[in-house]
Design goal:
This protein is of the alpha/beta class. Helices cover 37% and strands 16% of the residues. The relative contact order is 0.15.
Length: 347
């Protein structure tokens, strides 16, 4: 089956990027996804109290509408994050809005939080079953009160999602990244913390803040202090970048967020800065440019308790997940670690 999935990946790359993504989702819904072997026991870990069979997660953007989280868990991911979902359905930005940069092993997207809305998302997530599945929540582009949109998402999905990620770092919704400034972030996290405290304690789920890699001096420390002050469990570092570091592809001039290999060094550097600023007050999940076991291991040693990937699947196919896990397990043992947790922040 691995050869078949490899062929399917190559065929999908001949199609328009967004069309290929849609075909991949359809195939997974038809049961055509891969099945992973049991994980190496050394990879078992936990994230904010959630037991993970391995620390390699699927980043949001792939399963926007919570349609294929089960097949992606079966494919070998230790956890899956669905979304970004907004309270109301929205079409997103005009096409084309998703671009492969094959020469750079990168992707540029300006999707604009296209999704079918919170009610459709909740209907699918309600039957979660086994496995850790997070909800990445956002705000509608034309919302009068964007903070209220995040609160709405939290309340509607309470008791359904294993955890929540507050996405304020997408570059494709005008003004959204302004929520990372201190005053705006304090209002957002304050209202979310108040809402969470008022919800049933039985369904209490961890909350993470997803940040951009394009942060000025002092912003990392200010965000870290605010996250700690309002009791969030962690930070997802990082989202896509607006920078264009040495791209070769002609499509590198497209507007939107850049992900994939060119983001690796930048995102890991920002992750390391957050690890220093965290001072043990919250956890970190590392994402941005992970395409190998070495990349995942570097994020863990920089301070990440778990990692996420997506863009590399465009070029490597679903078999990449197993290769990353095998390489990660080998690297842990070679360096004398008995668990993933023991390597977190080891530098």
């Amino acid at each position: 089956m691995s050869a078949l999935h490899g062929l399917a990946t190559r065929l999908l790359r001949t199609r328009d990027a967004e069309q290929a993504h849609g075909l991949a989702i359809r195939g997974l819904k038809m049961g055509l996804g891969p099945l992973s072997l049991p994980d190496d026991p050394i990879l078992a870990t936990s994230l904010a109290g959630m037991a993970l069979p391995n620390p390699v997660g699927l980043a949001p953007g792939f399963d926007k509408d919570a349609e294929v989280f089960r097949p992606m868990l079966r494919a070998g991911f230790g956890f899956v994050e669905c979304g970004t979902v907004t309270p109301l359905p929205q079409a997103g930005n005009p096409r084309p809005r998703l671009f492969r940069l094959s020469e750079d092993r990168a992707v540029i997207n300006r999707m604009g939080f296209n999704n079918r809305g919170l009610e459709a998302f909740a209907g699918r997530l309600a039957g979660l079953g086994r496995g850790v599945v997070g909800a990445n929540i956002g705000a509608n582009k034309d919302a009068d009160d964007r903070v209220a949109d995040y609160v709405t998402g939290l309340k509607r999905l309470w008791g359904m999602a294993s955890y929540f990620t507050i996405n304020i770092s997408s570059p494709n919704t005008p003004g959204l990244r302004a929520l990372q400034t201190k005053a705006a972030l304090e209002e957002l996290l304050g209202r979310l913390a108040e809402a969470r405290d008022a919800l049933p304690a039985q369904g209490r789920a961890p909350m993470f803040l997803k940040v951009a890699p394009d942060l000025a001096d002092g912003e990392v420390e200010a965000i870290a202090d605010t996250v700690a002050a309002f009791g969030l469990e962690g930070i997802m570092a990082t989202n896509t970048t607006l920078a264009r570091p040495g791209l070769r592809s002609a499509k590198g001039a497209e507007s939107g967020g850049l992900s994939g290999a060119p983001l690796t060094a930048l995102s890991t550097a920002v992750l390391r800065r957050f690890a220093e600023a965290a001072k043990g007050r919250f956890l970190l999940v590392g994402l941005g440019g992970i395409g190998s076991g070495a990349d995942a291991y570097a994020k863990i040693r920089a301070g990440a308790s778990a990692v996420q990937l997506y863009s590399a699947l465009v070029f490597e196919g679903p078999g990449l997940v197993g290769r990353i896990k095998a390489d990660l397990a080998a690297r842990l043992r070679a360096d004398g670690f008995t668990s993933v947790a023991a390597a977190v922040g080891a530098r």
